Amino acid sequence: MFHEFELFHSAEGILLIASVILFFSIFAGKAGFRFGLPALLLFLGVGMLFGSDGLGIQFSNPNIAQFIGMLALSIILFSGGMDTKVSEVKPIATQGIILATVGVLATTFITGGFIYYISILATGYEALPFAESLLLAAVMSSTDSASVFSILRSKGVYLKERLRPTLELESGSNDPMAYMLTLLLIAYIQVGGMNLQDAVLQLIIQLSVGAVAGFLLGKLAVYIINHIDIDNESLYPILLLTTAFFTFSVTTLCKGNGYLAVYIAGLVVGNAKIVHKKSMRTFFDGFTWLWQIVMFLTLGLLVNPHELLPVAPIGLTVGFFMIVVARPLSVFLCLLPFKNFSVKGKLYISWVGLRGAVPIIFATYPMIAGIEHAGTIFNVVFFITILSLLIQGTTVTQAAKWLGLVDEPERKNEFGIELPEEIKSAMSEIDITPAVLAHGNRLMELTLPDHTLAVMVKRDGLYFIPKGNTELKENDKLLMISDNDEALLQAYESLGVTDYTLKKN
């Protein structure tokens, strides 16, 4: 047991144990990708392994867990906003927002009613009041698509029908709604009632302030980053991280929804032209993964696995109801007016609405608030999260294949080069085929538009810079840069080039 060792009570010992746990988590995540398991499930498992019922690390402070969760969610949502392309999201923005708002409300009331009903019928359990049943449902109403996409990417699976941007938008924007519902229901339970008009007004104020603050502070961040002119490039990601935390805290203090604000701010920053964007994306990708691991481990340490067994029957019942009834019903109702999703697409959206770390974090709020059945709520939420990840998380890829929703994969970037956004040009990669070589096997013999350069060749895994008399061979990969993408595409057509990529600034 760790708590029996003297090193656990020293700073060096704590650092040693923390590094060991992180090592375990990373290797567990690697194994999870290989076998199609969500990384979240394995990180939680590692936390439980090292916890009180495992190797003996004693951690039972929901306040610390909530604080860590708040920091992690701010970073995750900001990074998620940065990775979301407005051009992809715009066509399905209405559907995604409806799923994130009306869908959360529908899931909460459908599931809450079911929980209230079965808690009365179940023997051996104390019946939950209707308000606490709704609270339990609200805590579980947000989805986590990050795990879905990590699995799909690891398997090289791409989705049809704009399913990916829809799920991204829903996942990024439904956390604020679930958060507000959780807080409202806690306040309702504590004071014994609440005016419906006041509750609706509070929801509108939080959403409005959060959206406006996120947009304005995102624009401010873009302006500052492009005009501050810091000599040390490494400080730009730190500046952006500071902006994310500032956005969350200021918005929350102004009675707005901080989680919505950081997501929108990230969306604004990610779709704007800013200096050093690539290095900042790289920083945030790594930093986001670090905080996800820390958050999942903390939640795994917080739970006592032996307390999950008593709630297993009700957890299984509610979990299967959410997966099979509540989630599909809310999705189909929300998407009923829209015709751009097939029945199979709606079924897939329903199936991949798996629960992640966010419901567990939100489950700490009733504990801190001193709600009567807070312990039961936390354990049921934790159990259902594990159930959802085991059932839905492990079948993400197979479900897409069964439903015929697997799309052709995007062409891989062979050179891994990105042009700074301030350079107005187009970068393209082409395959050298017999059709291309028929026009000549030397670079100078290819008819290319003015202001177009062939800057690099990949041959048999090796890279080199070509010259005019460089002899091209079949299966070569050629990297082109041009300031006239239309003329370049016309040249490709005349040369018989059919397999190419094109990225414009």
From TrEMBL:
An individual GO BP term: potassium ion transport
RCK C-terminal domain: residues covered: 414-498
Membrane topology qualifier: Multi-pass membrane protein
Residues annotated as transmembrane: 6-28, 35-52, 64-84, 96-118, 173-191, 203-222, 283-302, 314-336, 348-368, 374-391
GO molecular function, one term: antiporter activity
Pfam families assigned to the protein according to its UniProt record, in alphabetical order: Na_H_Exchanger
The entry's keywords: Antiport, Cell membrane, Ion transport, Membrane, Potassium, Potassium transport, Transmembrane, Transmembrane helix, Transport
Gene3D superfamilies tied to this protein: 1.20.1530.20, Regulator of K+ conductance, C-terminal domain
A cellular component term, taken from the record's GO annotations: plasma membrane
Compartments where located: Cell membrane
Heme is among the record's keywords: no
NCBIfam families: PRK05326.1-2 (NF003715), PRK05326.1-3 (NF003716)
Name listed for the protein in its UniProt record: Potassium/proton antiporter
Organism classification: Bacteria, Pseudomonadati, Bacteroidota, Bacteroidia, Bacteroidales
